[in-house]
Each structure stands twice: as C-alpha cells, then as structure tokens.
Amino acid sequence: MNKYCARLKDINSLEFAENKAKCRLTLIRRSMGKGHVRRFSYHTPSPPVSPRLQSVTGAVMQESGGEEVGAGLEPEVSEHQQLAMQQEERVLTEQIESLQKEKYLIALYLQ
C-alpha cells in the first residue's frame, strides 16, 4: 500500500511539473504570436477602426503600457529573443513529452 501511495504522489508531482511546463509554453507561444499581432496592427490605418480591430489594438496598447503601437523606440521582439523563445519552446515540448511518458510508465506499474 505504501508503494501505491508513493507512486500516486510521483504521478501528482509529474502532473504538476507538466502543468507548469505547459503554462510556460503557452506564455512563450503567446509572446511570439503577439509580436506578429503588433506588426500587423502597426500597419492598419487608425481612423476607420472596426470592432474587431479595436479589440486587437486595445490588447496591444494594454501590452505596451497604453502607448500607441509603434510609438516606442525599441522593437517588439528582437531576432535574438525570438530564437531564444523558439529554443525554449523546443526544450519545453521535449520535457512535456518526457513527463508524459514517465507518468504513463508509473501508471502501468500500478496496474
């Protein structure tokens, strides 16, 4: 019975680590995607704004601290940052797959 409880705790720990990795992965993917949204909204004309564009530009303005898009002097995401995020995305994906396999093997052991 103690081994069974220990395995369940192991599974819980793996699930916790997997959820943390998935949250981080989602954050990275959103960050990479927002770079594209910013560039897109930068080229849209301001006066005739549709409701859909208002929500996009509102989110972008909120992201940039309320400044107009393109008003800042620094670029949204540098090429170096983009490459670093892509590398972290790959590493996190591999970690998630590894955690899922380990969780599966522990579950098999319990049967």
From TrEMBL:
Coiled coil: none annotated. GO terms for molecular function: actin filament binding; GTPase activator activity; microfilament motor activity. It is found in: Cytoplasm; Membrane. One of its GO terms (biological process) is establishment of epithelial cell apical/basal polarity. The keyword Membrane applies. Keywords: Cytoplasm, Membrane. This is Uncharacterized protein.
